[in-house]
Amino acid sequence: MPVICDSQTLADFCAKLAREPYVTVDTEFLREKTYWPQLCLVQLGGKDECKAVDPLAEGIDLTPLFDLMANEAVIKVFHAARQDLEIFYNLTGRVPHPIFDTQVAAMVCGFGDSVSYENLVTKLAKAKIDKSSRFTDWSRRPLTEKQIVYALDDVIHLRPVFEKLRDKLRQNGRAPWLEEEMEVLSSPATYDPDPRTMYRRIKGRGAKPRTLAVLRELAAWREEAAQARDIPRSRMLRDEAMLEIAHNLPDTIESLARVRGLSEGMAKGTVGKAVLEAVQTGLALPKEDWPDEPSREALPKSAAPVSELLKVLLKLRCQEHDVAQKLLASADDVEQIAAFGEKAKVKTLEGWRLDMFGADALRLRRGELALAVKDGKARVVEV
Q1: Which DSSP helix (H) or strand (E) runs through 217?
Q2: Strand 99-101 and strand 369-374: pairing?
Q3: What is the pLDDT of residues 239-294, one digit of tens each?
Q4: CA–CA separation, 4 vs 309, rounded Å?
């Protein structure tokens, strides 16, 4: 039976997989109506067989599965691992380790930014993915044979994809690059952010420090309340409403009820009381405790054309070295280098990224390199 629904069968299968050098892993989950993802299925792929584990089966003990995820002798292979790893961390307090993310490995090996699993399977495993069950409600039972086959395909084809990428990394010497990225994915801090930093995810251009102080308190309250109620943060309060509150600073239930996206019932209830308290907490903070304005808001105008030149250089270096731009430098990284040069606090100016692009980016900014067109192609030339 490809679906494991009892503790003993799971223990036996995990014991078998624990003797293998690597195991492919995927999960199916739901998150539309909850804060915490609801684990509905776990697929495990070994050398000889692949099985799905039903975590919703009555009485099943998932301890053998969790032990396998923590087994240092077995590499856990995922594609786009972040959400899968977050699920295991939330359930156990441990991040699976060691891990190999084929999406990141593909970026290191020149397959482009955030390459899809489907594309990798087509290119490396020479197979096709049946996408007809992509929008399945994985919490409903019983699962159909078609759904199970679809789910298991994700770990079956992942094995040749992993092996091809592993071999390519050995050939091009870029395995240390991948290890650096896996350290970030393996860190508990990646999945356990401080609620008082969540305001940074809200896009509010031009917000002043005082506004940000209030927004920080609002975002921290929302995060903790959404976790406690296990509902999506947007169902507690939408970003747009929080921004309006942070800018307009309502101090009564009546003024709060006028905020778009906040009903009168919410304003008069516990939510409204908590929101008003968060506003007052933010306003009471001394100036030295206000958040700084985002540095990207303070970029000098002169940085814009420099940034455009650096983006061309980035594209050239990525083409030359066959590596994804997203992995080498983000748009924000490029802007920071354009504005602040060596003082920019970005990963692009560290380690292998410095050697591949960062050092030349600084040279271009200093006028030691230039961009030119020769024979119809953009080129980097010494000045």
Answers
A1: helix 209-229
A2: unpaired
A3: 999 999 999 999 999 999 999 888 888 899 999 999 999 999 999 999 999 987 65
A4: 55
Which tokens go with 12? 């036996």
CA angle 238, 192, 212 (to 5 degrees): 45
3-class DSSP state of 51: strand
* 296 — pLDDT class (breaks 50, 70, 90): very low
Separation of alpha carbons 313 and 306, rounded Å: 11
Determine what percent of the chain is predicted with pLDDT higher than 90.
Answer: 84
Q: How far apart are CA 357 and CA 315, in angstroms?
A: 10
Contact assessment for residue 303 and residue 317, using Cβ atoms and an 8 Å cutoff: no
| Residue 59 backbone phi and psi in degrees, to 5 | 80, 0
For 96-122, what is each residue's pLDDT tens digit?
999 999 999 999 999 988 889 999 999
pLDDT for the residue 261: 81
Quick one: CA dihedral 145, 147, 148, 153, positive or negative?
positive
Strand, helix or coil for residue 317: helix
Taking the C-alpha atoms of residue 315 and residue 2, their distance in angstroms, rounded to an integer, is 45
For residue 303, give every residue at least 6 positions away whose Cβ sits within 8 Å of its Cβ, in sequence order, or none: 335, 338, 339
**Beta bridge partners of residue 24, listed in sequence order:** 45, 77
The DSSP code for 343 is G
Half-sphere exposure of 222 (CA within 13 A, CB side): 24
DSSP for 256-286, please give it.
HHTSTT--HHHHHSHHHHHHHHHHHHHHHS-
- Number of neighbouring beta carbons within 10 Å of residue 188: 11
Compute φ and ψ for 142, nearest 5 degrees: -80, 155
Measured CA angle at 231 (ends 212, 285), to 5 deg = 20
Peptide bond into 142 cis (omega under 30): yes
Q: How many CB atoms lie within 10 A of CB 383?
A: 9
